[in-house]
Amino acid sequence: MSSIGILGTGRVGTALAGKLAAAGHRVILGRRSPKEATAAPVEGLDPRICFADQRTTARTADIVINATPGDSSLARLTDLRAELAGKILVDVSNATRDGDDGLPGDLCHPGSSLAEQLQSALPDTRVVKTLNTMLFMVMTAPETLATPPTVYVSGNDEHARRTVTGLLGDLGWQPAWIEDLGDITTARATEAMILVVPHILRRHGFRPFAVSLAR
Q: Does the global pTM surpass 0.90?
């Protein structure tokens, strides 16, 4: 099993950490500062998960997941260029600007995507975009939806995409639910899907859903 570092200890990061640890991976949760990294573990989280600051997490893990806020991810991860060199970086964030109601209103990188910007800024890192087209609880429990959901995968490196597809299986995603779109430029399409989310939330409330293909 791989060692997996997760940058970000919010709802997304902790949910992914718990499910991946349960699947047998060694997981490092990366907190923003060394001081935070020495704080007590998150209540209810698998005690086998260890904590570190984000630079240590990026340096020591085999695979790194970006679960930091998308509007600041590019600057934050560019600062970790040396630590991320040679790694697979799984980007699950969406870079958006909030509207007046606090919900996503616009993209930070129109005509591009956060994933493309990360790949350009981190040429020695293999960036793979996935899990960004659903509410966070679906990432680790896709089987709870009434209809089969879709998760999309984008990245320039075929081996990295296959590796991430295996991690999706550990999170509960069946092969038929995984759509490999190809190179990193395809991430601009899936990142744009986030713009439908606020409209659904306003109509139906905070209920689990994914933006999926029907066949």
A: yes
